[in-house]
Design brief:
By secondary structure, the protein is an alpha/beta fold. The chain has two domains: about 210 residues, Aldolase class I (TIM Barrel, Alpha-Beta Barrel), CATH 3.20.20.70; about 230 residues, Ribokinase (UDP-N-acetylmuramoyl-L-alanine:D-glutamate ligase, 3-Layer(aba) Sandwich), CATH 3.40.1190.20. It contains 21 helices and 16 strands. Strand 5, helix 6 and strand 6 form a beta-alpha-beta unit. It is elongated and about 90 Å long. Bound molecules: ligand 3NM and magnesium ion. Ligand 3NM binds next to helix 9.
């Protein structure tokens, strides 16, 4: 019998989660709400009580054809006559459980690593519980936090093992606000999760029926930001790619989308001016509480971690959730990501807290985000010289974009942009951009606004933003009236504005400067 793993409820009997309520009544409500499989997980009750609870739950689940499994205890599963068991790495071994329960029982195994996952799949598990996805207080002594990136790696390995059809759910800190994103970001081309396993988001909910209904709805719906891309054939050819750019510049000017910047005070004024010059409508607000209202205005968000505090983090996270829920593009600018322990942990928290359509940073920042730079000590927030070959940077950027299922832009003398498929190197720009404050931040603002204008072609949109920005800088720096970084800034704004105007008038010669 095919089991539906899509909304997998795991019970809990700790007083903090039950709050005096009856577990059987909660599970009944959750099953009515649409959970598709239930596991009785009870680490404290005596065996006799466990069998009694299992039988009560089984009546509830059987009525809706929902399988019931027992955590750890093959004996309880046999005594209560339920559909199977879920076993951890320290419990009875899979082969013994199978021998005791027979070929028709559903047997699941917890896996925390690629090795554990592949071993259990090849050993004949019906499904795997992959985790721990996010830090959770529900389970004590959780092993490593794997995040969506870890899930994806396990799925890739499973798809290549001798039992690639094994079903999978993820567990640990999953709730209605992150389930869609976890399913989306963990999915590899070769294999994706079959469902989400939940404890507290249902058992601990005030209304378990509604909570289950809501989770069922979210797992059946792709996230709002997963907009189907209309990639033209031959996009890897410069001619095709460049043909797509002017329409995005025009669309931006037509839309004048809101560009919401959560950024540091050093660059606020400059970023707002850049946004205006390219055709966007800037709002500078670091207040997370107003983000839901702003997100409804269908613009983009830039989270610039320029000055990071715990209050700032809470604001970033609520804004990120607000924009994710309506599908508004979000750009992450992990300023100085590798500079301090606090910034490194802020990066982790933000990446675990939502989806970024594009991550933009210099080499050190991107290496930190990719987790390959534990040993890279960044001096300040300025970029410093590159230590990687261009092709190495291209691979890093591409792999990070694949891992996060988004776009990554690594800035430098040569900018590298990738959507995980196509990776582009852009050599435009001018050294004056490195001699003024906020050039990186305002590039983030620019790209964010362009992502609104080109939602169905995110890579083209981001490229359009980068080229317009870098070519404007080049044109400004080459002007006779520009003597250095000071006179460069106003000239740069003028050139951004001029390029937009020229494009609107049908003149796209500025693109000839692209290298
Ligand atoms: N197993 P919540 S995490 C039961 O990582 C369990 O194997 C985990 O609870 C694992 O949905 C976990 O409340 C608890 O975060 C999940
Ligand atoms: Mg166990």
């Amino acid at each position: 019998m095919a089991v539906d793993y899509s909304v997998y409820l795991v019970t809990d009997n700790t007083p903090a989660i039950l709050r005096g309520r009856d577990l059987v009544a909660i599970v009944k409500a959750a099953v009515e709400g649409g959970v598709t499989i239930v596991q009785l997980r009870d680490k404290t009750s005596d065996t006799g009580d466990l069998i009694r609870i299992a039988k009560q739950l089984h009546e509830v689940t059987r009525a809706r054809n929902v399988p019931l499994l027992i955590n750890d205890r093959v004996d309880v599963a046999l005594a209560a006559g339920v559909e199977g068991v879920h076993i951890g790495q320290d419990d009875i071994d899979l082969a013994s459980a199978r021998k005791l329960l027979g070929p028709d029982a559903t047997i699941g195994v917890t896996a925390n690593s690629i090795q554990e996952a592949v071993t259990a799949a090849e050993g004949g598990a019906d499904y795997l519980g992959l985790g721990t996805v996010f830090a959770t207080s529900t389970k004590e002594n959780t092993k490593s936090i794997v995040g969506t990136a870890g899930l994806r790696e396990m799925l890739i390995a499973l798809s290549a093992c001798s039992a690639p059809a094994v079903s999978t759910v993820c567990i640990g800190g999953i709730n209605a606000s992150n389930a869609q994103r976890v399913l989306y970001q963990s999915a590899a081309p070769s294999k994706q999760l079959d469902g989400i396993a939940i404890v507290s988001a249902i058992i601990g909910a005030d209304d378990p029926l509604k909570a289950a209904q809501n989770l069922k709805r979210v797992v059946e719906t792709p996230p709002a930001f997963a907009i189907e891309q209309t990639t033209p054939i031959g996009l890897q050819e410069r001619e095709v790619l460049f043909r797509e750019i002017p329409p995005v510049v025009k669309a931006l000017a037509d839309l004048t989308p809101l560009c919401h910047n959560m950024t540091n005070m050093v660059v606020q004024n400059f970023a707002a001016n850049v946004a205006l010059c390219i055709g966007a409508s800037p709002i500078m607000s670091n207040n997370g509480a107003e983000a839901p209202d702003l997100a409804r205005l269908a613009g983009a968000l830039v989270i610039n971690m320029g000055t990071v505090t715990s209050e700032g983090m809470a604001n970033y996270l609520s804004a990120l959730r607000a924009y994710n829920s309506v599908g508004g593009p979000v750009v992450f600018d992990p300023v100085g990501a590798g500079a301090t322990a606090q910034r490194r942990s802020a990066v982790r928290e933000l990446m675990a807290g939502g989806y970024f359509d594009l991550i933009k940073g210099n080499e050190n920042e991107i290496r930190t985000v990719a987790g390959t730079a534990a040993d890279v000590q960044q001096r300040g927030v300025d970029s410093g010289a590159s230590t990687m070959e261009l092709n190495e940077r291209g691979l890093l950027v591409r792999d990070l974009a694949r891992r996060e299922r988004n776009l990554v832009l690594m800035t430098g003398e040569i900018d590298v942009l990738s959507d995980g498929e196509l990776t582009l190197a852009i050599s435009n720009g001018h050294e004056y951009l490195g001699a003024i404050t906020g050039s990186g931040c305002t590039l983030g603002t620019t790209v964010a606004a362009f992502l609104v204008a080109g939602k169905e072609q995110k890579l083209v949109a981001a490229l359009a933003g980068v080229l317009l920005f870098e070519i404007a800088a080049q044109r400004a720096a080459e002007r006779e009236d520009v003597k250095g970084p000071g006179t460069f800034v106003p000239a740069f704004l003028d050139e951004l504005y001029a390029i937009k105007k020229e494009t609107l008038a049908g003149n796209t010669d500025w693109l000839d400067a692209a290298v």
